[in-house]
Design goal:
This protein is α/β, with parallel strands linked by helices. The chain contains eight helices and seven strands. It has a single domain, classed as 3-Layer(aba) Sandwich (Rossmann fold). It has a seven-stranded mixed β-sheet, with helices on both faces. The radius of gyration is 17 Å and the shape is globular.
């Protein structure tokens, strides 16, 4: 499957029209909070794989923003919501910016789509300046409730997820690229239903309450196994820091 208009209309982005009633909107708001808290306002910020631009668009007032995506159609849509962001076609495995160009890099659910994610991790380190902050998320193969979903687990539902890995492999890859970890956590259990017979609405309220609280408040408190994704906030080592 290619990342074309059909992809962006049939996956997470399909609920974008619901605005603040959509999980997509709350997710972007949460990542924007993380960027402001850990990244330092006024820095140059890059979003890798910006899609329709709704996350980077929230950050234009706080950072000097740039974003890349491999899909030109998506970037056309992104220009509508992120008019002050430098947008260009580019791959996470070959980022079209100079060394140490950014103080903050966001890459939200992209690495699992890449044939060579280790190249992307190296590129993220390259374009970050020493001491710069990386915010990365990807599906969590160690999710505590994943066994209850089996083959229906959310991470397996997208055929473009070609590089699913357990958290320890992602963390080892990032350490090898020169990152140290500031926060490691998860996003909660939002992939209801998890158990048969119980109504899905009730399961969303029960299983999803902690993840929802984290997203709404912007607080970070869920252990790494307590959710469908891992979220990593890391700092690139300062020169001579390793």
């Amino acid at each position: 499957m290619s990342f074309d208009e059909n992809y962006f209309s049939s996956h997470t982005y399909e609920n974008v029209s619901f605005g603040r009633f959509s999980q997509y909107w709350w997710s972007n708001r949460f990542y924007a909070i993380l960027a402001r808290r850990y990244g330092g306002r006024g820095e140059r910020l890059l979003e890798v794989g910006c899609g329709l631009g709704h996350l980077v668009g929230q950050l234009e007032g706080d950072f000097e923003t740039a974003a890349i995506d491999i899909n030109a159609w998506a970037l056309g849509r992104a220009r509508e919501v992120a008019p002050r962001t430098l947008l260009c076609v580019g791959s996470a495995e070959e980022i079209p910016f100079a060394d140490a160009a950014f103080g903050v890099v966001l890459i939200k659910h992209i690495v699992e789509h890449l044939p060579h994610p280790e190249r992307a991790i190296a590129e993220l380190a390259r374009v970050l300046k020493p001491g710069g902050v990386l915010i990365l998320s990807t599906p969590n193969l160690d999710s505590l409730l994943k066994p209850l979903k089996g083959e229906k687990w959310i991470g397996y539902q997208d055929p473009t997820h070609i590089s699913l890995k357990p958290p320890r492999e992602w963390l080892a890859m990032m350490e090898g690229a020169g990152f140290e970890f500031l926060r490691l956590f998860s996003d909660g259990f939002w992939d209801a239903p998890y158990i048969p017979l119980v109504p899905k609405t009730l399961q969303k309220l029960f299983f999803g309450s902690l993840g929802g609280l984290q997203a709404i408040t912007g607080l970070v408190f869920l252990p790494m196994r307590w959710g469908e994704s891992i979220i990593v906030i890391a700092r690139k080592h300062l020169t001579g820091d390793r």
